[in-house]
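Section 5.1 Outputs to date
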Amino acid sequence: MANHKSALKRIRRNEAVKLRNKVQHKATRNAIKKLKDLKTKKEATKLFPSVASMLDKLVKNNIIHSNKSANLKSKLSKHVATL
């Protein structure tokens, strides 16, 4: 168990941050799945910028690696282009 007030606060803060990261990551994964399931190019081109923005936010907050985001955006843009 932690012996200092700052360590106790850090434990509480880590839990809150972990939960927020988990929610953001799951929301992005769901948006990616929704984009992959779309059948029309018009809908996919509307949704793609918001998904790319979500990925960029995850990178900015160090939730995922920048290369993973780049790979996902590349694959998704190819998917949208082939619709």
